Structure formats: structure tokens, C-alpha cells
Amino acid sequence: MQIKPCPCGRTPTKLHINAQDRDKWASVSGDCCNEWSIEYRNGYARIPSDESMELALAAWNAATRAEPANDELSRPATACHEPQRDREAGSA
Known about the structure:
This protein is an alpha+beta fold. The protein has a domain at 17-62. Helices cover 14% and strands 16% of the residues. Strands 1-2-3 form a 3-stranded antiparallel β-sheet, with helices on one face. Strand 2 and strand 3 form a beta hairpin. The longest helix has 13 residues, at 50-62. The protein starts with 14 loop residues before the first strand and ends in a 30-residue tail after the last helix.
């Protein structure tokens, strides 16, 4: 099964499972930006294992994603690695 793209716009080449061995719940993030993660039910599967990776991949791919935006104002915060700009001129 292929990995679906991240909301940052890139497709991860690898998924990282964040949990202790045999946790009931875990989270998975991609190696593209490490800013978006999905919590999923790991069901006490060993980490790392094929079973836990299959569950993580299924959760990652099933997550709802917003369509990538083309303009700067509506793109997701996970894609923004620029310093924040003041919204109004003269604000401190």
C-alpha cells in the first residue's frame, strides 16, 4: 500500500510511529515535515512490527486531508516554515 501525501504537500517516504511497545494508542507522522500526526488505535501491537506499521499506514491513509491551496493566505500552517508577519502595519 502506498503512503498518501501529507498536508504539507509532500509525500513521506517513511512513517514514524510514536508510542511505547504494546501501547493501546499510538500516533504516526511522516518523515516529510514531522508537523502532522494521526492518532490511531494500535491495539497493543508490538512496536516496531509489521502489524503496528500496517495499522499506522491504514490510519495515515484514511485521515481527512484538505486540498492543497495555491495562495499563501489559505495554505495549511504545517506547510509554513516562514517567520510570522504582522497582520496590520504598525502592530507590535
